[in-house]
């Protein structure tokens, strides 16, 4: 009679996809921690389950990112502008503690600020996050000490967000929990996590996608609405979802999600919108009037061709480019030989928004990290993109050091910064190109090669198509095998049924 352990092996071993068996880079990298994962860990007989490992690694990497900010914590934020750039440890958080009135007890959106910035220029839910952190910061004492504590309080709250994001990435694809390590170990994630408050919106969107993957359209919509109340970009994922539900005929689920998102956004914004309309509108007017700024394609073009690009011109061209991208995503979704995965399109639409924006702050990479891990869970491509983002992270701080160091000119000159922008743009475009290739060649998609259809798709997972165009109306009956070195994988069937994951 087979033992309980043997029974568990027969049940669980085919279900969990091991990156060290299908990804050459993951296999080589695993040697640093003792080699590929063993059978006992795979079977869940150890306390070290994939989700727990991912969460702990994410917390550890976040802590390393905090350590990287130590030179600024000691003095760089307070004594001399250039030192926080030469040490690449800049953060908005301590500067805005006083600059946005939190040190003086001003209420965001209701109380006017001294100086040019008359109201807080952040969305409402982020403003609430900032205000809660100020409540937890003890009053009295020197301002420098209070700014340090304020940063530390925010870092603790953001660490929770980082752990939530990593856990969601590990749980969305049920058979691929180890892909959460892509998020947990992402170097750009650790380096930029405490620059600003973006992790709040990223965490809310990550939980939303987890809810959608579990078939809960209502919870997904509510969380997307909350995420959009914290940052502008999360609502963009509703666009690709609309087209996917169009192709699959899932109108009820999409309507539930969209209405819930609108309702949640209104619940958060309406009180401030009514009681403090000028303060509430500041975020939107600031976004519209803001000029061409760091990291954007517009800054690259303006300096490369020595032309002046006004905010209105940048806004117009950004809208035109996004419109073309959206039309392209619609066409791609309806004509692809197999319905694209939700995570693939979510990554592409957010990446397009970043690439066409008037500004690219270093922490914007946080928006893409969990989506990239779900869209293309391949270590080689992910690390190539991350290397480009780390290069940009260093490039912008070295450029600011150059511009603030006076005649000493310590740092990266303008031409070097232009190169850093180009590296960031090309790295993001590379990952987008790989994802688009996977959509048109689903046999190259590592998720579908393992036999899955759309693990993050919820009701879309394995659903038949009801509306397609062109070649998608006559898909091939079976996908062909893909051979990559010693790894042989088979594409999933059009219906999304599971097949053999790897030739093990």
TrEMBL record:
The chain crosses the membrane at residues 47-67, 149-170, 182-212, 218-245, 257-276, 317-336, 382-400, 420-440. It is found in: Cell membrane. Pfam families: GT87. The keyword Transmembrane helix applies. Residues 1-22 are annotated as: Disordered. Residues 10-22 have a biased composition (Basic and acidic residues). It is a multi-pass membrane protein. InterPro entries: GT87, UCP010361. Keywords: Cell membrane, Membrane, Transferase, Transmembrane, Transmembrane helix. Belongs to the glycosyltransferase 87 family. This is Glycosyltransferase family 87 protein.
């Amino acid at each position: 009679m087979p033992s309980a352990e043997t029974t568990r092996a027969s049940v669980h071993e085919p279900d969990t996809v091991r990156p060290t068996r299908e990804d050459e880079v993951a296999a080589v990298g695993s040697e640093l921690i003792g080699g590929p994962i063993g059978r006992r860990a795979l079977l869940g007989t150890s306390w070290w389950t994939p989700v727990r490992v991912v969460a702990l690694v994410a917390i550890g990497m976040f802590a390393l990112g905090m350590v990287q900010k130590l030179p600024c914590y000691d003095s760089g934020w307070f004594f001399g502008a250039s030192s926080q750039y030469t040490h690449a440890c800049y953060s908005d958080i301590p500067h805005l503690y006083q600059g946005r009135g939190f040190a003086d007890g001003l209420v965001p959106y209701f109380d006017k600020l001294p100086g040019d910035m008359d109201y807080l220029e952040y969305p409402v839910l982020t403003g609430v996050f900032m205000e809660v952190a100020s409540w937890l910061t003890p009053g009295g004492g020197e301002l420098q000490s209070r700014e340090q504590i304020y940063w530390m309080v925010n870092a603790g709250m953001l660490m929770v967000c980082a752990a939530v994001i990593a856990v969601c990435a590990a749980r969305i694809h049920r058979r691929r929990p180890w892909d959460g390590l892509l998020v947990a170990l992402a170097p750009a994630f650790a380096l930029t996590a405490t620059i600003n408050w973006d992790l709040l919106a990223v965490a809310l969107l990550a939980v939303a996608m987890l809810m959608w993957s579990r078939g809960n359209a209502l919870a997904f919509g509510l969380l997307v609405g909350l995420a959009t109340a914290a940052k502008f970009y999360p609502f963009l994922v509703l666009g690709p979802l609309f087209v996917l539900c169009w192709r699959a005929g899932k109108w009820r689920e999409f309507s539930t999600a969209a209405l819930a998102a609108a309702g949640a956004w209104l619940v958060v914004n309406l009180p401030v919108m009514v009681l403090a309309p000028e303060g509430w509108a500041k975020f939107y007017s600031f976004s519209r009037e803001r000029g061409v700024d760091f990291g954007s394609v517009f800054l690259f073009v303006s300096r490369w061709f020595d032309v002046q690009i006004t905010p209105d011109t940048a806004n117009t061209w950004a809208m035109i480019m996004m419109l073309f991208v959206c039309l392209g995503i619609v066409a791609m979704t309806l004509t692809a030989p197999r319905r694209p995965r939700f995570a693939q399109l979510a990554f592409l639409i957010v990446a397009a928004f970043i690439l066409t924006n008037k500004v690219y702050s270093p922490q914007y990479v946080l928006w893409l990290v969990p989506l990239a891990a779900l869209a293309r869970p391949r270590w080689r491509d992910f690390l190539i993109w991350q290397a480009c983002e780390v290069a940009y992270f260093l490039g912008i701080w070295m450029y600011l050091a150059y511009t603030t160091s006076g005649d000493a000119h310590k740092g990266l000159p303008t031409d070097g910064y232009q190169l850093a922008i180009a590296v960031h743009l090309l790295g993001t475009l590379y990952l987008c190109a790989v994802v688009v290739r996977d959509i048109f060649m689903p046999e190259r998609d590592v998720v579908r090669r393992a036999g899955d259809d759309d693990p993050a798709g919820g009701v879309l997972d394995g659903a038949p198509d009801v509306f397609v165009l062109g070649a998608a109306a006559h898909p091939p009956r079976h996908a062909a095998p893909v051979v990559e070195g010693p790894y042989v994988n088979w594409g999933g069937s059009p219906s999304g049924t599971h097949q053999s994951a790897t030739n093990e």
